[in-house]
Amino acid sequence: MSGPWTRVAFGVVAVVATTIGFLGVWLPGLPTTPFLLVALWAAARSSDRLSNRLHRIRVLRTAIGVAEDYAQTRALPLRLKVLSQVMAYSAIPLVYLVTHTVWLSVIVACAAVASTIFMASTPTRPSDPLHRGS
């Protein structure tokens, strides 16, 4: 299945995933990297122009670099793993203090646990200076 509508569909997926990834930069508990992986994948299938525009978003440059590196190596730096876990679990009480909503805090806690499972099952990049071996 290919054609102009397929490219448009990939473009829409890229824009939506980029928007969610962009929000993940600032919203605790919302991941950035997985959405940027989807955005990069979809943008590459949509058009070179969209893919290039995605790479020019300044606030996402670091996350896009990590997403591209992960796509190639299927490994993450230890520093990123530790930081993501600290942020994920710090977000739980923060969300409750700000919203006073238990169900929202439970959703963030579930996201933190999912993040822990993902980080534990993802190899640590050996070239990371903080990596001390297996």
Write structural notes for this entry.
The structure is a single chain. With 134 residues, the chain is mostly helical. Helix content is 75%, strand content 0%. α1 packs antiparallel against α2, α2 (33-46) packs antiparallel against α3 (48-55) and α2 (33-46) packs across α4 (61-73).
**Bulk shape:** globular
Terminal residue distance: 43 Å
Number of strands: 0
The quaternary structure here is single chain
Unreliable segments of 5+ consecutive residues: none
Number of helices: 6
List the secondary-structure elements in sequence, H or E: HHHHHH
Structural class, judged by helices and strands? mainly alpha
CA-based gyration radius: 16 Å
List the helices and strands and how they pair.
Elements: H1 4-26, H2 33-46, H3 48-55, H4 61-73, H5 78-99, H6 102-121
Give descriptors for this structure.
0% strand, mainly alpha, 6 helices, 134 residues, 75% helix, single chain
Summarize the structure.
With 134 residues, the chain is mainly α. The protein contains six helices and no strands. The radius of gyration is 16 Å and the shape is globular.
